[in-house]
Write a structure and sequence with these properties.
The complex is a heterotrimer of chains A (129), B (213) and C (676). By secondary structure, chain A is mainly α. Chain A has two domains: 67 residues; 44 residues. Chain A is built from four helices and no strands. The longest helix of chain A has 31 residues. The radius of gyration of chain A is 23 Å and the shape is flat. Chain B has a single domain, classed as Cytochrome c oxidase, subunit III, four-helix bundle (Four Helix Bundle (Hemerythrin (Met), subunit A)). Helix content of chain B is 80%, strand content 0%. Chain B is built from seven helices and no strands. The radius of gyration of chain B is 22 Å and the shape is elongated. In chain C, strands 1-2 form a two-stranded antiparallel sheet. In chain C, helix 3 runs antiparallel to helix 16 and helix 6 packs antiparallel against helix 18. Chain C is globular, with a radius of gyration of 25 Å. The chains are: A mainly alpha (129), B mainly alpha (213), C mainly alpha (676). Chains A and B meet through helix 1, helix 2 and helix 3 of A and helix 2, helix 4 and helix 7 of B. Chain A: Belongs to the cytochrome c oxidase bacterial subunit 4 family. Chain A: Its main location: membrane. Chain A: One of its GO terms (cellular component) is plasma membrane.
Amino acid sequence: MSDQTHMNGEHDIAPGDEEQHSVGERIVGYVVGLGLALLLTATSFFIAGTDLVWQPSIPVALIVLAIAQMGVHLVFFLHITTGPDNTNNVLALAFGLLVVFLVVGGTVWIMGHLNQNMPPMDQFIRMHS
Amino acid sequence: MAMTATIGRAHADPHHIGLVVEHPGPAPKRTVTAYGFWVFLLSDIVMFSCFFAAYAVLVSQTADGPKGSEIFEQRNVAIETVCLLLSSFTCGMASIAADVRNRFWFYLGMAVTCLLGVIFLVIEFREFADLVSRGYGPSRSAFLTAFFSLVGCHGLHVSAGVLWLLTMMAQVFAKGFRADVLRRMMCFALFWHALDIIWVGVFSVVYLLGSGV
Amino acid sequence: MPAGRTVEGTMLGKLDWSAIPFEQPIPLIAGGVVLVGILAVLIWVVVKGHLPYLWHEWITSVDHKRIGVMYILLASVMLLRGGSDAIMMRIQQAIAYQSQGYLPPEHYNQIFSAHGTIMIFFVAMPFVIGLMNLIVPLQLGVRDVAFPTLNSVGFWLTATGALLVNLSLVIGEFARTGWLAFPPLSELSYSPGVGVDYYAWSLQISGVGTLVAGVNLVTTVLKLRTKGMNYLRMPMFCWTTLASNLLIVAAFPILTATLAMLLLDRYLGFHFFTNEAGGNVMMFMNLIWAWGHPEVYILVLPAFGIFSEVVSTFSGKALFGYRSMVLATMAICVIAFMVWLHHFFTMGAGPDVNAIFGIASMIIAVPTGVKIYNWLFTMYGGRIRFTTPMLWAVGFMVTFIIGGLTGVLVAVPPADFMLHNSMFLVAHFHNVIIGGVLFGAFAGFEYWFPKAFGFRLDERWGKLAFWFTFTGFYVTFVPLYVAGMLGMTRRLQHYDVAEWRPWMIVAAIGMAVLSIGVICQIMQLVVSIRNREALRDRTGDPWDGRSLEWATSSPPPVFNFAFHPDVRGEDAYWDMKLSAQQQSLDHEEPEYHDIEMPRNSPTGFVCAFFATIMGFALIWHIWWMVILGGIGAFATFVVFAWRDHDEYVIPAAEVAAIDRVNLEERRNLVSMAGAI
């Protein structure tokens, strides 16, 4: 089996590998990614500690910023693109994210309902004594 | 004639929708290895998602112990975050150096990555040690249990990453940029970047959102 | 503070002579017999000089076929262990009416916990993983799996888990908590012994092995396919393998995380699932079933694939509705992650949550129904040969429909409130797991045995085994449905209700019939091995098969195929046979090339050795030994990473010599078929 990275025109690309680029272009990619990530991180920390924005919007904003930053990392550091040679990698990622979403979302939803339906402990003890 | 028509269609339709493309056969080893590791990383992320879910469920269960806002130090977290971000960047530089087989830049990139990783671990360890010494260990409350496990699990991954990083450097030193060493380097880079992505979730959900609870 | 600290101070942690159950004759005798058996086999191997052969050809082998066979062997041995647990339980419930029976409660509880754990993790899982390992690369037309050495590591870690579970028979105890170890019962305050630790660590270790197998097989199917093997030309078994292993990769980390939380509670005093300090017991049910439900489909999807292959081969027809089958498989793969709450409707999440998960559970029956119809339509109008594998497939269809229907019944939350934790539920899940997974495993075993060993299994004993197992299954489990309807709950060590008694006795009789089926299966193996020359499969295609595994000799050479086959459509090998007949066979010899194959490696075995040490030391709180095991495991990896030659070359001449024999047999076959 060959180890040619960028020559496999017909094959899918390995996750993390880039399409053919010069060293300079690749470094620029990482620099842009780093810049964007730092910017988003700074915004997150700023928003979390500020009184300047409407307070109830903060959790949503933090989650949106986190997702945006994960996207930046995926594109600029892990080189996940929408190209046809990346389909397999993206599909695997999508399946993983779906499961993450189902597990976290489902757990929070189910446990929230269970907590809500549970009689408060002191009341429960009174009922059974 | 038919040939050119197919080529023309392939260009207009880069995803080959509606066109049966003959599968070219087994993929090259580099693709296979990296893909397998990619699938493993996704499973690792699912494992983290369980700890995230546990944190979300238990974050308000402080059992009269401290709340998140009382123990988190934003400044430390910011330093940790910057360390990991920069290390992701230097790790990327080391991967480029490995691809062009430049030993100097490879060692430099990996060494800086290692240093940043160790700084991160030291800050985290001191945070943990400080909390435990104040009586706020993981056994204090369910909230602290979830906090220590999630952040600690990430920390363990970073520690394993540092160990792997040193092994990689030793491998390049002993074996040079052999094909199998380059494949492992690629997996290591994927691992390190993925840890950074998980850290984005950790600092957003645990430290920033957790301070508001 | 770590709970273990209180007993620390001795070199051996919690381990002392009281760990050996001298006062309990049953486990001691059983353990003694097993130990003597193992020693006898070891001595025989050493004295006869088979050790080098075993070491070079099997233990260190990275050949996917060998590893597949070892998985199946492990599963078969564990099936006998789990089966004897089942026999003991049936006998206990048959005689424990208004009495204590012959098993004391603490022992009975260990038995039902071990039965479930072993049957799921060390029988069903290795059996299906073994079959997938054995067959999928052959069906894809490739020479090996994506990660041969890791494959070996995965197998040996699974074996480590099985070893630890069985070790609990003689050293210490097993969990008394049921096969999922629900807290708070499994927390340190209620289960202070090592039973739950045995349970959790063996599952953690074998879970790593399963994850490795999953990653390996997903990558194999997605990245290693022969030329022309497009996704929609893969045999159905490859599709179900892909779906099942995607589920493994996505679900097993949930099990790992959940058990890690339980272990942190037990070892370091954390509060995930405790009653105190804000821990949440219900979160354990939630998380473990988020793994547990996909697990059901991890097991049954490969079985669906096996039935697809068997039904289409023995009906002499292409699989009906191939594309709908693919769609149904992938739909099950996704929906499997959306139904887990139906295992705990009664915990009280409220009507809206229960309703949504109830509906999702009913929806997942739809793609399953699609599959049943596809199999029926494949058989319709076909020229059906009722061989043993086909009998298992038809038996499955009948049995699985009943199990599926009772499943849809308990998917209705109000009905589930009545039936939860009753014998009805026990009957239901045995109905689908035995009727689906075990029948599938047996069908695959009978179907692919000639491929693995080069001779067929005896049909007469095989059919006897089927009919005894089939009948025994119904006689055992229909009474359990009835008992459940009469209000009998599961896991009862004794009971005082007279109406249940007759049904328990019938179930025990059924168990006896089932055991005869197992004995027939063993007899089949013995008889077939003795008659192997008469049953020899010289053509490599004993069943007139349709997919690529039949295109190579039985057993296949280590490299599987001298050339990567060129696939032009579905049912690749069937097409090749047809076109070969039409072209009246060109006898031109192809040009052979050198083949590179991965070298054997003891990495898997050595890793498992250290994992066993580490697992045992963790269970008994022997901390220095834990560190030693950890260092050993890391060192193994580094040594493995340092080796310079991981492949060896089979010269073209040798490939040619092996392939010529195969081609000659095949030409005879085709010309014979042409003459007819």
